[in-house]
Amino acid sequence: MKQDVEEQFLRAYDDLSEPLYRHLYFRVYRRERAQELLQDVFMKTWNYLAAGNQVDNLKAFLYRVANNLAIDESRKKKEHSLDQLLADQPKLEPVSDDGKHPEKQLLIEQIFKVVDEFEEPDRSILVLRYHDDLDPKEIAVVLKISANNVSVRLHRAHERLKIIFNKDDNAREISTID
Q1: What's 132's DSSP letter?
Q2: What percent of the residues of the chain are helix, what percent strand, and what percent coil, each to the nearest 5?
Q3: Model pTM?
Q4: Measuring CA to CA, which of 30, 67, 123, 145 is 20 to 30 A from 116?
Q5: What is the DSSP letter of 176?
Q6: CA pair distance 158, 126, nearest whole angstrom
Q7: What is the C-alpha to C-alpha distance for residues 110 and 19, in angstroms, rounded to an integer?
Q8: Full domain range(s) for residue 128
């Protein structure tokens, strides 16, 4: 394996392991499982690169592997106690440290609870966009769909969120999160 590929991989590990962990944790809601999946992401990527395969965008490739592992994990029908699920529920970091927008933070938390009920790939698109802060072009590479498709799905999911929140008599302007 070329030295530059190894350096690129190590740099990606240093730069992306924490954001990928948060992505996986948000998807599986269990710290230990998110750590295991993170190891799998980097091992699968390393094995792919060691086999001589080329990757044009390592960040997108790592997110694709992580997203696929999270989808596989969600397809497994494991039962967890309600207490464990509540204890492992991820906590979102505050939107601002100044505490001036607590209603915005509450809205974001409510949105992420609803997003968890969306079907794939809409759930992945919303998580990658609003949790992982990837732009539509990066999401397109991760999910192997067109950037236009990502934008359309984001718009439709956004509209569904508006309908859900209006139906729940919680008519707040969701577009403020973008």
Answers
A1: S
A2: 70, 0, 30
A3: 0.61
A4: 145
A5: G
A6: 9
A7: 21
A8: 91-177
